[in-house]
Design goal:
With 308 residues, this protein is mostly beta strands. It contains one helix and 28 strands. It is globular.
Length: 308
């Protein structure tokens, strides 16, 4: 779940030398002046797939396609109410809506909706992995598994209080159960829960550097070892962090209520610097053409250029 203090709640949503060089690239990106891409009113999560950057406008109910090289919007498609959960796979873009009960399957070239699949209300996050689409549903505390070959829900995993962010990584589906204060591991071979790890107010999960990095509404990012299934480090960041991403070997964490990005160095498990960032940044995406940051309050996506 995320919300900004000035708005209504919108969702219930290497070696030493090599490391030094990589971190220098990240710092240069942060120092570069970003350009602004207007997308509408309320920006959502960012995904890179099929040669484009994808996001949503939760107010106008549109899927937005962006050319990452030109930094221009190249297409829009109206979807269900408050589209938020976003994933790519099986030749399609998958969009789950907060205030509708459907998951839309969209052709990335034509933007035509090829199928609407009923999954349930209050979808928060979507992910693709193990030849399936996974959608977390806050309304009934379940995770739905969709088979893209059949375009239907083939399993519902229960046992969550408030499933939020989810990701497929390290041969499992990981779900942040915000109200219960835990991250839950689901085995995709059996559709069963195999582990529950305590993390207070767990909200979003980003894999990388051999770990899972869990954004928490406690204004922390927790480093979780997926094999030992325990927290190995805790990093204090800004207020209300959400959808982080890896940029040149560092984790960029958007802080919705601080209007900033905390840059975390995985070698030290500490914030190396803080970048001022627009109005309620909620998602970061790194591509070869730049680093994109979505803003939830001013309807824009920032683009930090590469090679700066």
């Amino acid at each position: 779940m995320w919300y900004n203090g000035t708005t209504l709640r919108y969702l219930r949503t290497f070696g030493i030398l090599a490391a030094t060089a990589v971190l220098g690239v990240s710092a240069a990106l942060a120092a570069a002046a970003p350009t602004t891409i207007p997308i509408g009113t309320t920006g959502g999560i960012l995904v890179s797939a099929y040669g484009s950057v994808w996001t949503t406008d939760l107010t106008s109910d549109h899927l937005i396609r962006i050319d990452p090289k030109a930094g221009d919007v190249t297409g829009q498609r109206r979807l269900g109410a408050r589209p938020y959960g976003l994933a790519a796979g099986a030749g399609s873009i998958w969009v789950a809506s907060q205030a509708a009960d459907t998951l839309a399957r969209v052709n990335p070239q034509t933007l035509r909706i090829t199928k609407r699949i009923r999954v349930g209300f209050q979808a928060f996050s979507a992910a693709f992995g193990a030849r399936s689409v996974w959608v977390s549903l806050e309304s009934d505390g379940t995770v739905a598994r969709i088979d893209p070959r059949r375009n239907k829900v083939v399993a519902r995993i229960r046992g969550f209080a408030d499933p939020n962010g989810l990701v497929y990584a390290y041969r499992a589906v990981w779900v942040s159960d915000l109200a219960a204060g835990r991250v839950v591991r689901v085995d995709p071979r059996t559709n069963r829960i195999t582990a529950r790890i305590k993390i207070p107010r767990a909200d979003w999960i980003t894999p990388g550097a051999g770990a899972l990095w869990v954004s928490s509404e406690k204004n922390r990012v927790y480093r979780l070892d997926p094999h030992a299934r325990k927290v190995t480090a805790t990093v204090a960041v800004g207020a209300n962090p959400l959808a982080s991403a890896w940029v040149a070997g560092e984790l960029w964490v958007p802080n919705i209520d601080s209007n900033s990005i905390s840059v975390v160095d995985p070698a030290t498990n500490a914030v190396s610097r803080t970048i001022p960032a627009g109005n309620a940044p909620l998602g970061v995406l790194s591509t070869p053409d730049g680093v994109f940051v979505s803003m939830s309050n001013d309807g824009a996506v920032w683009r930090f250029p590469t090679g700066s």
